[in-house]
């Protein structure tokens, strides 16, 4: 039999043909916008290492939330940045119903809660004077079980404020189970847990630390994972699903596409990925120099993260990307 004249280029000939056979397409509703609310601000304040991202005042937060929602963004993830005077050893401002994060969650729920998904970052690092994600034992190490008890109460405080989803991101062992149980006991059976299951201790979080005015000295390697480990990520994910995670998350995103793909294969809950501050800042910096096409790279990275298996993506570009995607499709 004659060898058929196979020509893959036939399907690339026109924009309409390419559109017809496009395998992966990002939808605005799959994007989550991480937002920073800073206590005591009357005007939004730019974050120099995250061009275009702000530390919000309560008022500018509400406005930016509306913009995101009208662009079609699927969810908002809120981080609270307390005044330095309100940080302490145990991060108590994170549990306070009148603390900046819970105030912000209530504002967002009142403003756009019917139209989108409101999520709270459930971690202590913004609230502790030492900047660690948990409380410290007398020897200076992060005390896993003492931290869990605080996470449980913090999750309930966020649910009380109206959060639809809480995102435990501190990588403490057992955090998902403890938060789930605390939510249930407080009558918040309907609040979901987005588990930061595989979070790597890498160098991509630099600009975020500026955004939240982190006090951290040292690193998080005793609780976040080593960059080389993928089997360990699967173990973390399986534990989290067993503990009741409704969704699992891999973070960072682009340097860990293989991890996203492996997690997707292993579990059937929705897989999320966090395109972190360093990923965003690299692109913005190169684009500012005119070295790469900002919008092109933005959509290409998100498409790649989705292709690897993430169905929900946290990105500081969420609003801009949603607008571009709406024009495109
Ligand atoms: C910790 C936390 C971190 C980020 C979100 N939550 C980073 C860290 O471990 O310091 C990073 C997000 C980003 O870099 O965009 N609660």
From TrEMBL:
Binding residues for 5-aminolevulinate 2: 277, 316
Domain of life: Bacteria
Cleaved signal peptide residues: none
Keywords associated with the record: Heme biosynthesis, Lyase, Magnesium, Metal-binding, Porphyrin biosynthesis
Keyword Transmembrane helix: no
InterPro entries (UniProt xref): ALAD, ALAD_AS, Aldolase_TIM
An annotated GO cellular component: cytosol
Residues holding Mg(2+): 236
SMART domains assigned: ALAD
A Pfam short name: ALAD
Enzyme class: lyase
Record-listed E.C. numbers: 4.2.1.24
GO molecular function per UniProt: porphobilinogen synthase activity; zinc ion binding
Oligomeric form and interacting partners: Homooctamer.
Family membership noted in the UniProt record: Belongs to the ALAD family.
Name used for this protein in its record: Delta-aminolevulinic acid dehydratase
Species: Actinoplanes auranticolor
Gene: hemB
């Amino acid at each position: 039999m004659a060898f058929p004249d196979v020509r893959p280029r036939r399907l690339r000939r026109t924009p309409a043909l390419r559109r017809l056979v496009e395998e992966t397409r990002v939808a605005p509703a799959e994007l989550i916008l991480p937002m920073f609310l800073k206590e005591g601000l009357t005007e939004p304040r730019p974050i120099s290492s995250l061009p275009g991202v702000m530390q919000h005042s309560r008022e500018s937060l509400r406005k930016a939330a509306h913009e995101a929602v009208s662009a079609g963004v699927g969810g908002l993830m809120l981080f609270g940045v307390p005044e330095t005077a309100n940080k302490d050893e145990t991060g108590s401002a994170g549990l306070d119903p009148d603390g900046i994060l819970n105030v912000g969650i209530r504002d967002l729920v009142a403003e756009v809660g019917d139209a989108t998904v409101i999520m709270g970052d459930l971690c202590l690092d913004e609230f502790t004077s030492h900047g660690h994600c948990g409380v410290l034992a007398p020897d200076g190490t992060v005390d896993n079980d003492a931290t869990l008890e605080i996470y449980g109460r913090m999750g309930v405080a966020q649910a009380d404020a109206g959060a639809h989803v809480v995102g435990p991101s501190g990588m403490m062992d057992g955090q998902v189970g403890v938060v789930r149980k605390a939510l249930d006991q407080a009558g918040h059976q309907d609040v979901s847990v987005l588990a930061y299951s595989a979070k790597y201790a890498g160098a991509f979080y630099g600009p975020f630390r500026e955004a939240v005015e982190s006090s951290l000295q040292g690193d998080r390697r005793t609780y976040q994972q080593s960059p080389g480990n993928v089997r360990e990520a699967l173990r973390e994910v399986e534990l989290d699903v067993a503990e009741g995670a409704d969704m699992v998350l891999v973070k960072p995103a682009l340097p860990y596409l293989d991890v996203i793909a492996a997690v997707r294969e292993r579990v059937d809950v929705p897989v999320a990925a966090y395109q972190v501050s360093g990923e965003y800042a690299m692109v913005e910096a190169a684009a500012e120099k005119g070295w790469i096409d900002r919008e092109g790279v933005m959509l290409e990275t998100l498409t790649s993260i989705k292709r690897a298996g993430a169905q929900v993506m946290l990105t500081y570009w969420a609003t801009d990307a949603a607008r571009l995607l709406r024009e495109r499709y």
